[in-house]
Design goal:
- By secondary structure, the protein is of the alpha/beta class.
- A seven-stranded mixed beta sheet has the order 3-2-1-4-5-7-6, sandwiched between helices.
- Helix 5 links the parallel strand 4 and strand 5.
- The radius of gyration is 18 Å and the shape is globular.
- The two termini are about 35 Å apart.
Length: about 250
Amino acid sequence: MTRYEWLRWLALPVLPVHLQLVRQDLKRLVASMNRDYKDGVQLLDVGGRKSPYTIGLPVQVTLLDVPQESATQTELHLGFTETILSSIQDKRSNIQGLVIEDMTQSAQPSEIYDAVACIEVIEHVEEDALFVKHIARVLKPGGWAYFTTPNGDFIKNEGPHKNPDHVRHYSKRELEELLKQYFDIVEVTYAVKTGKYRVGGLTGFSKKRPWLFLKTSFCNLVNRLQSRNVSQSSQNTAHLIAKVRKS
């Protein structure tokens, strides 16, 4: 592991709960894979950009994202640029490949990945059915995919806080119906308690204001406790998590 990866691993317990939960889930899914992978588990991270969720995982990661072209993408830190690509390669030890393309028009070969991670991405995609179809296509038989997205049963993308780059927020039922078109096993649950501690935990760290680290860390620790046993709670939860598998 690189120095950057060690620092991220040490900081994980006080980082936002969504990141902790995704990292934990991905680690468990990788550990559950009992086949003999001579070249390592091949994982495609769709829309991963800097991909903090797969740092240090015992997998070979291929990052796939669209080029950063629009002003909105730049403002929201979406998409790839040459600078971002170079930075990732310097910091990460498990990055095997980098692909700049739109997943809805993917030219990737079929059945080449053991797993796919798609974290807070699908809500940005206009042609979501085509997007999911291509993810299923590039997965090997028996492979799994992991999605997270805002919980549309509770968080509506409208009003003064509307995210201009979000096409839709799915309800649990809508996400299940979409994924069942392309995967044989689909499990969708809720995650991360909303409220002031979740919001406080999302505050960025600052060298000029080091006390923010203590505040943010405390909020994330409290939110982690709050977020236990909320997998069936449609209200006051921030995310949907989908674990799917291809026969």
